[in-house]
Amino acid sequence: MDSSSPLLVFSSQSQLEPQDQRPSTQLSFLDNSQSNKTLLLPSKFIWPKGDLVDAHHKLTEPYVDLQGFLKGDKNATIAASNLVRKACMKHGFFQVVNHGVDHTLLATALDKMGSLFNLPSNLKTRASKMWGFSTAHSNRFSSKLPWKETFSFGFDHCITSNDPSVAHFFTSTLGKEFEEIGVVYQKYCEAMRELSLAITELLAISLGVERWELRKFFEDGSSIMRLNSYPICQQGGVTLGTGPHCDPTGLTILHQDQVGGLEVFANNKWHTVQPSHNALVVNIGDLFMALCNGEYKSCVHRAVVNKHKERRSLAFFLCPRKDKVVRPPENLVAGDGARKYPDFSWSELLEFTQKYYRADAATLPNFTKWLVSSRASDLHSST
Asked: Looking at the Swiss-Prot or TrEMBL record, what is one Pfam family this protein matches (predicted)?
């Protein structure tokens, strides 16, 4: 995604309406140098009780070991693909270990987030025009605001270390003194690109399609990198860090600290996800669900807040080119040729979540209805 694109919003929205018709209120957290512990939550942060149901179960799915797959071991690949298939058909969520990403890079990327989220408000405001900082999405919505702060930027898959666009974004947005941090996130994005594309190969194998087919779909894309900070909140029982939703993108790879707070909805219950130092979280998004004709589920998840500790995470959202047509491989369409979703482009789904609908757990079916209706209206207007 190019740097002029607006931020994606991944939080709950029950109504289908143009977003520019909703009232907008700019609202900021206190500087991190101050305390959020005693801050009385405005009503805009209060969530419906139905979204706040506690999780009383732990997600106990086995970790997927990628070492053998990445080395070309046939038996290890079959074993890994079977685990992935089971998880993706069930809830669209799994964790990977021995993924090949340097652990020092992972630790450094998490550590450097402090230098960003501890910046004074005036510098954050300067960096929040398009990409950059966003506080609770308060510039776009006026209710059910997530208790979090984010820093987002795009990453073109065709860019290499010889053309460090991410590092340049940091220096041009925040100043020359942020070049070192920018280089860290440039390397992090490159590592996530390679890992996410490798995972698309494993997913293809698990789906029974040609190994490289899904990789080719995403490899010339432009993905999104988002750093998340969930401040301490003493009133966690009435708000959420992120509401129940499915990511509208292809895949998400999440690296998180050890505080915990990620929860997955499966079997009609919320399940907590135990953080692991060595594992990365992977979840299926709406675009991928459409790409595999609904065989794998888009993962419904949320983030709860913590009364005692700030939580931080890094999310890499794998996306194709904006004009790439989302159409499942032929062998994933039922024998009768039944398609669960019409052809669409990533730009159309992106437009839907930017202009008309706040992404939630039902984004894909509502997008499908909107798309069919819009195309019928366009056809009627042209006749």
From this structure: 2OG-FeII_Oxy
